[in-house]
Every structure is written in structure tokens, then in C-alpha cells.
Amino acid sequence: MGDNTLGTRFKISSFGESHGKVIGVLIDGTPAGLNFDLDFIQHELDKRKPGQSHLTSARKESDEVEVLSGIFNDKTTGAPICLVIKNQSYDSTKYDKFKEFLRPSHVDYVLLKKYGGFADYRGSGRFSGRITAGFVMAGAIAKLILNKFNIFTFAYTESIGKIADPTEYFADDIEQLIEVRDKSPVKALNAELSIKMENEIESVKNLKDSIGGSIKCVAKSIPPGIGGPVFNSLEAKISRAIFAIPAIKGIEFGAGFKAMNMRGSEHNDPWIIKNGEVKTLKNDSGGIIGGISTGMPLTLRVAIKPTASIGMPQKTVNIRTMKETEFELEGDHDPCIVPRAVVVVESMLAIVILDQLLIEGFIPTVLNS
């Protein structure tokens, strides 16, 4: 398995660079017979594209999906599906100007050490958040399959900086939550907090700075018994996929890091019978125990760092002269990447869940759409 491939049965291979010709994904293992809903895939992709509002990067990209293979008569054939979007709006000259400067908290130095100066540095090349467009395209197909089995993934912005939404939302009506979230420019569920988050992003943008936040994600109706012990842990597989998203710096499941301040009597999830099925009274385990799903909603939270690209003066090193210096970064950048990352987190979770369900035979290789 290469560095750019994820999955076992539902396998995705990511390709493309920020300022290259295309960004794309090759998807192998999609069950045959699925109605290929291109409009849904495009709608998902539109949620992460730049230029959506004054709060995002000014880079204008249509991000229109093109299908190169794997679809015949509007259905999946079982063959590999190749999806691409063309890069159309970028200015590489700004990166040429600063190619001798190591941008703080960017990949410039590590790429130099690993690839000897041959890596594409324009817009961070292969390491740009732009590659997540491929994740979303693959995730959209995963969602189309999972939704047929009443399994849904949903994510939203929980916090921007210190402005946080403490409400525990129930995943009973995913469609209603999606409708509320998508009305918010920051993808939040509380209208009042959404405005505060927007103002906070606008404030740091005016300072030529950036800010981070957190995203909460839930997967509904995963059957119990999915995953395995040790290296087949469902948490481990999800974490690997989530950390492929640039800017992710942390992940927790259920109570997560709060558990270190809890007693066992507080953290333990008592077993109960509900509607004739075994459930837990609460869900501090986040729907996973021992790396295996419990049948309760799978809940996770991810921490996203402030965007490294900022316009303020910063200390750095000129790698050619090997002298310390100061510079100001130019280009189109997000003051906060959290809102655009919401659909990416959601998509990666869907990809891992579908892969595991295919591995364990819960989903057939041929679908009757």
C-alpha cells in the first residue's frame, strides 16, 4: 500500500497537486449497480471549495467533477472509478518569489530534506488542503452506499477559537441537522454562536492572522461488532484516515480527554435494553469499545490548527543564504479552515466505515439500486 492509498475493500488513491492540472481520486471496490448521483457528489464538493464567502480563501475554483471511468448507463460497474476536478485559478509566481524562504509551520523544510528539492512547492503542492477535494468525492460515493443501509455520517463546527457550542445534539434527524448547519457560513448548529464565530474569523482576518477550532462528527446506525482488536481497531483506522487531512492536530472519541478527569463510575456506560435491543444508557465510549462498534452512535471530535499561511511579518530562514530573516507571506489563504473541513471529516469517516462494512460482509458487492 502506497503513501497515497487508503482502504482494503473500498480503496481510494489520491493524486494531484495544488497548482497542478487536476486534483483527483481513484476509487476501487465500489459495489456494482449503484445509481451514480453526480449531482449529490457535486453538492458535497461545493461544501469545501474555496471562494464561498468572505471568510474563506479568495481563490475561485468551480471544482466541477469529471468522471473518467467506472460508470456506465448512470450506474457503477464494479470497475475503478476515477474522478477529477481541474485547477483553474492560481498564481504560482507568489510562491516562486518566496521559494528560498522556509514558511513557518509549512512543509518546506521537511520536503527539502525528504525529496531533495524536487517536490512541488507551489501552494504546498501534494501537501495542500486542496487534495481533500478527492477525499470528498470518494466520501460522497461512500455516503451514497451507506445511506442505502440507513447509515449516516454528520459533522459540524463545534468551536472557533474559544467560542464553543457545548450542546449535545442527537443524531435522530440527520436531514434536519444538515439543513440547519448548511445555513451557517461556519457550518455551526447554533445561529447565535454562528454569528460570534463569523465575527471572530473576520477579526483575525483583518489582523492578517488565522484561527483554529474543532469539528464534531457522528456516525449513525453502525451495527455492533464492526472492527477488531489491537491493530484492527476501528478507532485506529478512523484516526489514520482523519490525520490524512491537513491541519488536523488531534482526535478523541466519546468523552475523549475528559475521561482522564473522570472516575470509572462516571465514565462507564451502563448496559440497558431499549426496544428489545442492547444499548448503553449514555455514550462516553463514543460507540466503540475495544476497537469494536457497540451499535451506539459513533462520536468523535477533531482539533484543527490555525492556518499556517498568514500575512503578518514572521521570522524565518533563507535556505539559500542560511541566514535568519523576516518576511510576509502573499497569496490566497483561509483565515480559518474549520468550516471547509467539516465535509472532509464527514467524508473520511464514511470512507472508513464503508470499507470496514465491506470487509466484514455487511454490505454486498452488488447493489440493486
Amino-to-carboxy terminus distance: 31 Å
**What share of residues are in beta strands?**
15-25%
Biggest sheet record: 5 strands, antiparallel
Number of strands: 18
Secondary-structure class: alpha+beta
CATH C-level category: Alpha Beta
Description:
Helix 4 packs across helix 9 and helix 7 packs antiparallel against helix 9. It is built from 9 helices and 18 strands. A hairpin with a 2-residue loop joins strand 12 and strand 13. 27% of the residues lie in helices and 22% in strands.
In short:
This protein is of the alpha+beta class.
List keywords for this structure.
alpha+beta; 18 strands; 5-stranded antiparallel sheet; Chorismate synthase, AroC fold; 9 helices; 369 residues
Which SSEs are present, and which pair or pack?
Elements (H helix, E strand, L loop, with lengths): L4 E2 L4 E6 L5 E7 L9 H9 L19 E4 L1 E2 L2 E2 L4 E6 L6 H5 L10 H8 L16 H17 L3 E9 L2 E2 L9 H8 L9 H16 L6 E8 L13 H9 L5 E6 L10 H4 L3 E4 L2 E4 L7 E2 L2 E2 L4 E7 L9 E5 L4 E5 L10 H22 L10
Helix pairs in contact: 1-4, 4-9, 7-9
